[in-house]
Every structure is written in structure tokens, then in C-alpha cells.
Amino acid sequence: MGELVASIPEAALQRWMVRLAQKGDLVSSIGNLTAVKLEATELRARPLRHHESRRLGWLQNTLRACNTLYDVKLLADNRSVTPPGSPQLRPDLILCSPMGDYILVELKTAAAAERQTVQELLAYSAAMRAQAPFLGDIIYVIAAFQWDPLLYFAAQELIQHGQLVVPLRVAGGPDEFSLSLVMDLFTSPAPPYYDPWHALSPARIRLYGHQPGQRGHDHAGVLIRGMKAYATSEMRRLEQSGFVLSWLWRDQHSTEWAYNLMVLTVNQNWREVDPGSRCNNELPPDTLRDLKLKWANEEEKQSGSAPIAPDDFFAIAALEAQREEYFPESNLSWDILTRAANQVGLTSWRRTLEVDRDSDISVQRYLQAHSPQLIDGTESLSRVSLVPFGDAADYCCHNWRAHTVYDLMEMLDAFSKYKLNMRRQDAL
User: Fold this and answer.
1) 102-111, 158-167, 210-219, 261-270: lowest mean pLDDT where?
2) What's the alpha-carbon Rg for the chain, to the nearest Å?
3) Residue 313 reports pLDDT greater than 70
4) DSSP letters of 41-83?
5) pTM for the full model?
6) CA 261 → CA 145, 306, 328, 402, distances in Å?
7) Left (φ > 0), alpha (ψ -120 to 50) or beta: where does 180 sit?
8) Residue ranges matching CATH 3.30.70.600 in the chain
9) pLDDT of residue 378
10) What CATH code is assigned to 196-267+329-427?
11) Which DSSP state fits 116?
């Protein structure tokens, strides 16, 4: 098959695709499209976990892109899309749908050339947007005989970030070809196990004041809602798992009040960073982790230090600190909160509001240290709101409702048991 592919000129595939586009037969030539539509229909008909919802979203985006291929018009083949006077960039095909969508088609018959496919498509679309800034989505059609790792993972990255991609595997030739969607690109595995108590990294911002009346209180409420909306948007964009939690505290005996916003995201290196998590010794395969451990071990060998005795706690602590340089604790929760504060212009309210910020590497340690200060009596809490994301939403959206912040501890305990149960089910 490899020799046959190498002997097929790209021009032959291009002529065949041009004929299909002119006859409006591009969609009907995708052999497994009906099966993909049936799978999407079945997924929509039942409750889904987060990773299944991701797969459905990717499939729906590709089906939407396929729907634009009906009755398309061929605008150009091998014509430059760059502004006059610029270096030329020539997509294999440029199509236009009846709804005004632009479709860029890139064809590859040679294995070596496939590595540049996604880079070329992004360059073409950037050149088009430079001249037509009000374009909507640009649809990418990739048709290749061989999907090598570089092309495979680059196309998967586009799909997972919401781009409209039609990934096609080509077979046959040299005069007639067949097309099928590359279904492996839509794989969305179940999330790996993590212990919420140790893996969730919290960061909190508190706006508080002492003024009587509603002026400062209302300002703080507006700011917290704005930061919460931004944090929520970022969590969804990043496909994170965790929570955004907000609440209002009032002192029953004075005019003091405080709005709180907490973000909890999963620390990727939770097993290495939090010593309390090391009882969990079932580690999944992880190439990145193995690379980091390799370099950490190399540093230990080069240092030429003698073997450490089991009871030499200072030497053990120093070794662990050295290894943790390769497994830095996650700063994502704090980063999201900081960007949210900058988004709403928090610094402009410092004259009327006081700001308190704190964070930790695990929610368990954070709550142990701060729970008395976080809440001073459950009767003074109001407007408690928790938004779960990722696989946290699989559990919380159906099983938990917030009444007090103390409920967060009970929920995390139940969520930890849920994660254990799901790990057993996914392993079956």
C-alpha cells in the first residue's frame, strides 16, 4: 500500500476532489458519515459524563462542517490567498458554501508532506482573515492517505479546541478514491483518577468592608459576579475539572460583611507535590512524569551523594524538595483569580474595599488551616453558589446543592468516594 500511495500524484487526488465539488458529491463520498450521525444521535439520547459530552461536541462540530459541504462552489484551486505583494500561499482547494462559509481543503498523498498540513491550513486562514476580518468560522478539510503522529495530534488539537475540521482518510487511486472520517481523532477517554482532597488546589479572594448601608456592599457584589463569570468562562475554555465557589458573609453584631470567591482546579502534579497523597500508589502510565523522574534521578547521580539512611529525615526532606523542582505545584487557580480581578478592574475599588487573597496546594490543607476563619457561624451565610466543571459536574450537578460552605467538606468527601467508584467501573 505504501508503494502505491507514493506513486499517486497529488494532482490526481485534486482532480478527483474538484469533480466531486463541482457535482456536489463531496458529502456522499464519505463512507462512514451515516454511522457517525447515528452515534451522535445515540449520545444525545442519554445522560452523559463529561468526557462523553466532549466527544459528542467534537462529533457535532465535524457533522456541522460536513453539512456545509452540500452544494459548495469551487472558488479556486492552487491560487494564492495572501494580499497583493505578499509571499504566495496556495491552498489545494477553496470552496464556498451557500451560507457563505469558506472551506479550505488540503490534500496529501506523500507521507513526508503530511507533517506540514495543519501549519499550512492555519497560515491560509490567517491570510484570509487579514483581508476579511469579519469572516465566521473557516472549515478545514484534511484528506490524507497516511495519518502520521504529527498530523494526527495536530488535527486532534484543532478538534479539541472547537475548530470545524473534517479529517478524511483517503484510499484507492489512481483514478477513483474513497473517503472516510478518521474516528480515532474523536477519542475522549474517561478522566484519570485523582483524590479531590489532595488534588484540588484552591485560591480565594475576599472583598470586605465595614460601611453601613449598601454602597460598598453593592460594589463588591458586582465585582464578585464579574470575576465569577470570567473564572467560569476560563474553566470551561481550559476543560478543567473543579469548582468555582462564591458566598456572602455578614456579621450579625456589626456592619461588617465579606464577599468570597474561591477557585479550585486539579493540580496535575498532585501525587508528587502533596505528601499526604502518597498513599495512592496506583500510578497510570505517564510519559511526561517518567521524563521528569529521569532528569531528577540523573541530578541525584551527578551530585555523587551517598545513599540516604531511612531515618535521616533531613536528607530525605532535601531530596524531596529537589525532586519537587521537576513537579511544581499548580498555580492555575491563583492565575485564574488574578486574571479575573484584572478583568473587572479590582484595583480601582481599593479605597472602598479591602482585599484578602490566599491559596494552598491542596483543598484539604487549606480547609484545615482556614475553615474557622472562612466561616464564623453558618447562620451568617447567604448567596452561596457552587459551579462544578469537568468530571466534578458529573457528580455535583445531580447529587449536591449548596446551603453552607461547610457543605463543601461533606461534598468533597462524597466526591472522593465517587471518584474511587468510577475508577473501578472504568477499569471493567
Assistant:
1) 210-219
2) 27
3) no
4) HHHHTS---HHHHHHHHHHHHHHHHHHTTTT-EEEESS---SP
5) 0.80
6) 51, 48, 24, 14
7) beta
8) 196-267+329-427
9) 45
10) 3.30.70.600
11) G
